[in-house]
Structure formats: C-alpha cells, structure tokens
Fold:
Amino acid sequence: MTDDDAAVRARLAALEAEVKAETEAKSAAKAVAMERLREQKAAKDAERQALVARQAAIVQKSAPKKETAKPKASAGDDFETALELARKARGVKEELTRPREANEKSWLVSGGLSTVLGPLGWLYAGSFREAVPASAAYLLIATIIAKLPFAFVFWPAIMVAALVSGVIGIAYSYQFNKHGKRQRLFGDKTDGDKKKLKP
Structure:
C-alpha cells in the first residue's frame, strides 16, 4: 500500500466520521426540538382542561337549584275539595232562590240595578262606604267618556264592567240577607262598625 492510498483512506475515514458526527448532532437537535414540542402540547392541554373545569364550575354555580318535588294532592283530597265547592254552591243557590222576607233585599233587583246603573245600583243593598265613592267615580268617568268623540271605543269595556257590577250587586244583596245589614265586600267591617282600640 502506497502512501497515497493510505492518505486517501485516512481522508475518507475522517470525512465519514465528520458526516456521522454531523448526522448525530442533527438527530440530537431534532430530538430536543421534538421534546420541546411535546412539552408545549402537554402544557396547552393542561391549560385547556383547567379552563373547561373552571367553566363547568361556574355554570354549575349559576344554574338554578331544582325545587324539591311537592307531594301531589291525592284523589281523595280533590274529591273533598269538589264536595266542599258543591256544598257552597248549593248553599248560595238556596239562599238566592228562597222567598224574601220583609226586611231583606232582592238579589234580582240588586243585580239588575247594578248592571244598568253601575255602582249607583250598589246603594240598594251595598255598603255606603264602598258604594258612595264608587258611584262618584263612576259618574265622573262616565261624564268624561260621554264628552269624547270616540266614546264608542269603550263599549266593550263598559259592557264587561256592567256585568261585573251586576255580580257585585248580587253579592251585596246576598251578604245583606245573610247578616241582616249592609256588609262591605272589600273589607271585614260592616257599615256603622267602629274600630275598637285594643286594651
């Protein structure tokens, strides 16, 4: 083997070692870069999971609490309620259909006057403390509506109010006959009663 051949082989070996070292360095750098990418991905995944957990906790806190289910009324309770209502309705019917005595008010007259005249009809059997202010307000409103050029617009409301007034008039006569004197429907005092001071 000549000196030239030995020099060429030495050169080739050095070149091969240099290429190998460079390849190993690139592989090591690539491995380090991949490891960094894995760490970054793991950190992002952890942040995302923490955010989802926080949002779920906020939603759970803000969600309205479910009300405890109330026990449903049994069929027996419904039947008793229906019987009680039927008894009351029969009592009212008997009261309205029985013959009137001399000092009692007719529910037909009271209902008719209250339907036609509004609160003015309440004066027949109703409490003066309620009928008088209501009559004054009724007259004032009727006067204002009568002067309006488009008063016909109020006719549906007037008809409903007349029916309600008639029902109230019947209730006034019923209470009058039941207690023997004028009764207030919208309070627990009768006309003429005075508030008693507590001892």
